[in-house]
Amino acid sequence: MKSVLILCREETTDVKELIRALINKGIHAISAEPREIVVDIDRSGIRFLYQSRILELVCVLGWVSLSQREYGLWLLKAFEICNIPVLNGTEVLENGQNKFLNSVLLAYHEIPHIPTRLIGSYEQLEETAELLGFPLVLKPIVGAKGQQVVCVEDLKNLRNLAPYYFRDHKALYVQTCLDKPGRDIRVRVIDHEAEFAFFRYAKDGEFLTNLSVGGTWEECNLTPRMINLAEFCSRVFKSPIAGVDLLEIGEDDYVVIEVNTTPAITWPHMDTVFRVAEFIEKRVHLLS
């Protein structure tokens, strides 16, 4: 029996609920972390194994990030080379999870974005501060859930924190800190269609709005401008499943903070998981 494989960082609630929704649709679905997949390569060909059984796959959902990202991308690329369809494949995940490439894609397609600079040395800090002005936001090139995202108010703090980002020959990704109303907006896009949006509010006195670090939420009515912008981002990133983060800069006017290509699909809106299952079901039928 051919299966849908969800290759994931870990078996989260999102993964469990999506497996349940797919099984309810009569689709055999399994989830695995990259370390659980064995690949045999010999004269007879290439075989992907899970729990000592050869996988017969109709498609794979790429859902790897953070600690599982590098290993996971190798496997997803191998699936693609072997003509196994991957939804949110390697190109999508690489561009979405790399904040620098995320910014490049947004700017190249003339999507409103935050002034951003990538620098590779300590000597470029002062010039960067003069160009962008304080406060500044420092982010890791690859990261999620608001990890290692900090706001700095002056050159002294910038100089103190920059070496942490430069270590291991990495670059520093810097953005202007735009004035925001204590919140931003996440738009969920499934099959390139905006289906739900919510405000994310930072705690009092805090900078980050991520729900994973204690932010709160409230449903946001989707406007035509929001829908057009989020759906365009989804298509530019070739990401049929996406979370598009917007910052309000005026009345129904926004800049895109980033496009998340492994967004949450359950809480705070459980219906999203059913939309994802319907999207996968549609792809399965097209591939069968």
Relevant terms:
single chain, 288 residues, Rossmann fold, Dna Ligase, domain 1, D-amino Acid Aminotransferase, Chain A, domain 1, five-stranded antiparallel beta sheet, four-stranded parallel beta sheet, 16 strands, 32% helix
Layout of helices and strands, plus pairs?
Layout: E1 3-8, H1 13-24, E2 29-32, E3 37-42, E4 45-50, E5 53-54, E6 57-63, H2 69-81, E7 86-87, H3 90-97, H4 99-108, E8 116-119, H5 125-132, E9 136-139, E10 150-152, H6 155-166, E11 172-176, E12 183-190, E13 193-201, E14 216-219, H7 224-236, E15 241-250, E16 253-260, H8 271-287
Parallel strand pairs: 1-2, 1-6, 6-7
Antiparallel strand pairs: 3-4, 4-5, 8-11, 9-10, 9-11, 12-13, 12-15, 13-14, 15-16
Helix pairs in contact: 1-8, 3-4
